[in-house]
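Need tokens for this chain, all 121 residues.
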Amino acid sequence: MKYGRAAGQIRFSIPKSTERDTAGEIGAAITPYLERLTGSEYLVKVTSRGTVVEVKGFAELIADLVKDNAYGALLAGVTVDNDGAKHTAQEALVTFSAKPVSPGDTLGRLHRKPSSRISAS
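Here are the structure tokens for all 121 residues:
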């Protein structure tokens, strides 16, 4: 997966494993999704403050898998459209404040833990 931004691209990679759990119901359902997403690329546009504004190509990447096995997407925790992928990508990023943070200030809302507060001191 590549995260593109104006200053360049950020690449994430996960080493491929040769082990596949296809014997069990869950393994058989999610393995096609995990194999498809491993090493795949789609566009995630992020503002300089960390807000995901657009995802392109994710839904198209898994469309045939969803059509054949939507239950696998649910089990794998994979969203089935670009808007859902946008939300998932946003949860992986921190959104920065529009105003500068000074010592003693706190950021009130973080995407992963809405009740968390981070001190700038």
